Amino acid sequence: MKILGMDTSSRACSVAVVEDDCLICEFVINNKKTHSQKLMPMIETMLNMSDLSIEDMDAIAVSVGPGSFTGLRISMATAKAISHVNNIPILAVNALESLAGNMDLCDKKIYPILDAQRTQVYTAKYEYKNDELVELEGMDVKEIDDLIEIIKNSGEECIVLGEAVSKYEDKLSEVENIHIPAVSHNVTKAASVCAVALAKYKRGEGVHSCYDVNPIYIRKSQAEVQYEEKMKKLEAQKSAENK
């Protein structure tokens, strides 16, 4: 089974092709959020270098979030278009479980963290049981200080990984039971998206058509929040004028 994977949920843009348990090719660029310019050229170049075509793919694996609102829409639109034209399924993986998949078979608790702006992070809690990734706590948005306190007080040996690690590394490194992996594990990878997607597919999970898969945002975008605040102010002004 050949799977084309893609992840644009964070700063990194990543694509990969996995056939069964073999990684055929993977590209990762982690410098600027210009995913709309890079994603399709990366896919085309990767397939050409691998002597493959879209028609060879049996499924599309895509990270559905949480993460960058714009980034998620780019990969989702691309995955849906490829799925629709080629009549192949989409395998949906959330960005946090694919990050946890970077720590395959780790014996510690795993907390992926992605930047949610201000002092917050998207996070969840995982562990490997019997060689299988298991979700212990679902996706949420937490203040980084609150998350650090939770981990510190748990007394468990924990891995904290993801794009937001570099932003909060000073705080994280002060906690004895928090372990930060190598930089190669802190970036979202399409190969991990494929691996997690394949495991879910074998369990009959996460399989969608191009019509019934959507991004996971968890919370409203900053633009939506600002719009609602603006509307509340306008309503308050109108109410005051009518008194």
From TrEMBL:
Pfam families reported in the protein's UniProt record: TsaD
InterPro entries attached to this UniProt entry: ATPase_NBD (IPR043129), Gcp-like_dom (IPR000905), T6A_TsaB (IPR022496)
GO-annotated cellular components: cytosol
SUPFAM superfamilies referenced in this protein's UniProt entry, alphabetically: Actin-like ATPase domain
GO biological processes: tRNA threonylcarbamoyladenosine modification
Protein name: Universal bacterial protein YeaZ
Residue ranges occupied by any Gcp-like domain in the UniProt entry: 32-225
Gene: yeaZ
